[in-house]
Design a protein that fits this description.
Elements: E1 2-8, H1 11-24, E2 32-36, E3 71-77, H2 80-92, E4 96-97
Antiparallel strand pairs: 1-3, 1-4, 2-3
Region (Disordered): 40-66
Biased composition (Polar residues): 40-59
Length: 98
């Protein structure tokens, strides 16, 4: 079993990578961990997703997003074929692999 890691600039990029792994490749969510890549809580280095203004007239753009650092995604894999799928998903969504 190996542990693969990548960091992402935005929450959206990290989430897209995770969804690709779970929905398309069938990885178990329990094999995936998502944390801030630093000591402070973080939503990434730039606003994305729910941190942006909504198309709805009610909510306004948030100004309190914790933009402290990148988002780190770690995935435990069992074999080389699975590892390659993870690496490809990381790369597809701008993951910076460690």
């Amino acid at each position: 079993m190996a542990l693969l890691e990548a960091t992402f600039e935005t929450r959206r990029e990290a989430e897209m990578s995770i969804e690709r792994l779970v929905q398309e490749f069938g990885l178990n969510r329990k094999a995936i961990e998502v944390v801030a890549d630093g000591t402070l809580n973080s939503a990434g280095e730039d606003t994305s997703g729910g941190d942006n203004a909504s198309d709805s007239p009610t909510p306004s753009e948030r100004v309190d997003a914790a933009l402290n650092d990148r988002i780190k995604v770690s995935v435990s894999v069992d074999d080389e074929a699975e590892a390659e799928r993870v690496r490809n998903a990381f790369s597809e969504f701008g993951g910076d692999r460690s």
